[in-house]
Amino acid sequence: xxxxxxxxxxxxxxxxxxxxxxxxxxxxLLREVWQGEGSLAVRLTAQLTEYEGGKNREKTARKVRNWxxxxxxxxxxEEVFKICFALKLDEERAxxxxxxxxxxxIHYRNPGEMIYAFCLRRGYEYVQAVRIKEQLxxxxxxxxxxxxxxxxxxxxxxxxxxxxxxxxxxxxxEDELKRFLESSRERFGLYHNTAYRKFxxxxxxxxxxxxxxxxLPEDQIYSIRKAVEQYLRMGIPYERRLGGYTRIQREIxxxxxxxxxxxxxxxxxxxxxxxxxxxxxxxxxxxNELQTEDMKLAEEHHRRMDLMLSECGMPQLNVQNPFDYLVxxxxxxxxxxxxxxxxxxxxxxxxxxxxxxEICPTAEK
Length: 365
Description:
Blueprint (H helix, E strand, L loop, with lengths): L2 H15 L8 H8 L6 H12 L5 H12 L8 H10 L4 H11 L9 H12 L3 H15 L9 H6 L4 H9 L5 H10 L9 H15 L12 H13 L14 H7 L5 H8 L7 H11 L12 H15 L10 H10 L8 H12 L14
């Protein structure tokens, strides 16, 4: 790699750490989507306290203050939906909030989230939305929602989420919603199938390059751990406590995959997330086969990553997001002997210098 490229990466990290790169924080996004009058923090505190039956107002107020000062993010998707209802957001603005905090927008193949989307569309309150969701899911799935089978995703050739979402746009009444849920029952699933297929293909390239869709070898747990340590961790500390980390470090570290999370994604115990897909793309160079001039290489990687994310129902790359900014910087440059994953790792290690912790492999089993 040339000195010019290394200098460019060093400057990219310095620009990020010194505030020269314009970033959008969670509090910035909340202020952007809020269209009401008065104090945003007061509105959130009042509504979220109401959703809890008037309990723990001080705890809720402290949580809102932390959000407004970008100390942390909502802990799960349900909490994000509560924020969306509290601020009376429509589906489009709710997608932005979910995309920043939970790494994917509304999952329209998940019936519970589809019901929430309908209620946001109609301007319902959160408590009413919960009642409708419990009622409809109880009637349509009386034995509980079925789990997602790995084989089902592998055999399914369609982008079901996009298909279901397109039809769902015409649903405007509760009766139409119920009929739609009943008629689409077989198409629902909790996880993103398109993302899973792409995840499996790229992961298999790292674990055993000679196989593609044939599954993992017998020593799959060890192979996953080895692949994660070699290609994906990039020096990110394993410790869960975020005290002492800067806002940029926290945002980059959030949702960073471990051997355990990769294995659970592989066995469909949890959904494939956006950050994991992007890191796998970097590690596999998008599985190569790039036919373009060096000067256009960065643009081609950018285009392919955006296409991958769009197909999976996830937000495209955003230069105002710290992680995405580094991804785009890693894609720049044209030295064929220097992989974009290696460039990403060098920048990550600079940002987390001094934060490395002792890694205990047994903790990731």
